[in-house]
Amino acid sequence: MGLQDILNRYEVQFKPREGYWLTKWLVDEITGSRSCIDASLDLGITWSKLCLADNKILVNDVQIPLLVPREPDRIIYINDQGMDAYEVVRRTDTGFYKLKAIKKYGAPTLEINGIHMHRIVGVDPWTDSRIKVRAARIKKGVKVLDTCMGLGYTAIHSVLRGAELVVTIEKDENVYWVATHNPWSHGLSDARVKTLLGDASKIIGLFPDSSFDRIIHDPPRFTRRTGDLYSLEFYREAYRVLRIGGIMFHYTGEPRRHGAPSILKGISERLRKAGFYPVVYDRRAQGFVCHKRI
After folding, report:
1. How far apart are CA 16 and CA 2, in angstroms?
2. Which helix (H) or strand (E) holds 86?
3. Which residues of 245-259 are buried (b: 16+ CB within 10 A; e: fewer)?
4. Is the dihedral of CA 263, 169, 93, 109 positive or negative?
């Protein structure tokens, strides 16, 4: 099966939601001001003059309802007609998904069952993703496999650094739904980004040999349910689809801080057994930089 065949089978067109986004910080700023203010209704991407009248926010001849999130870190989405509004959260039988505000302006993170999908201590999610992309040595003209899309920040940063093609995979339709409601994920609609909906541990086995110059592997935390993404079989497939001279960055975090240093040791041993060499831990990016030399 060729790369285009895989895209035809699994690709979904990313359709970002247009509209406005409210956080409690922004609502407090608007209601606490006695005049119009310059502020952002898309979490800090663009800025507009906002005025408050009759409990509505006035912006560019549109009236937006003044709504307060039920929790300080939740985000309310309002469609571009200012008519439909709801918090960007989703509850299912298996989990609770939330687009989580980190501060008044800036890229939010994704929280699943109380676990953040980005680092937020000492670094913001956008910068966290940029650090990972730099660790993967993304540069102009490369083809990138991004195994776990999430909110798409690493895929977007790869394009910003000049990647020719980024194939990004997301298994969870709920995560995909949250991403469509995040203004910082809109870059996933770039023509150079191909979003695939499916299981990366299975899709990776379909790619032809040497399909990619770079791989960014940023899986969820290691558990029984995510173990396939940390397996020797997966690493061997990653090695196979990477071109000679290519690099994979594998984010792991720092589990040793939680009393489990053997996790990193096991990962590094499996990466080397799969053929990667050298395998070097990058402390700033908190993951392994893995090379395919032969």
Report:
1. 28
2. strand 85-87
3. ebbbbbbbeebeeee
4. positive
Alpha carbon distance 237, 233 (integer Å): 6
User: If phi over 0 gives left and psi between -120 and 50 gives alpha, with beta otherwise, what is residue 287?
Assistant: beta
Q: Find how far residue 1's CA is from the centre of its chain.
A: 27
d(CA 189, CA 251): 24
Angle in degrees, CA 119, 271, 254, rounded to 5: 25
- Grouping H, G, I as helix, E, B as strand and the rest as coil, residue 253 is coil
**What pLDDT band is residue 223 in, cutting at 50, 70 and 90?**
confident
Q: Show the domains of the chain with their CATH numbers.
A: 3-14+118-291 (3.40.50.150), 19-90 (no CATH)
Here the tokens at position 92 are 């299912």
Cα separation, 159 vs 190, whole angstroms: 8
CB contact at 8 A, 156 and 193: yes
Q: Tell whether the model's pLDDT for residue 224 goes beyond 90.
A: no
CB 255 within 8 A of CB 276: no
Q: How many other CB atoms are there within 10 angstroms of residue 228's CB atom?
A: 14
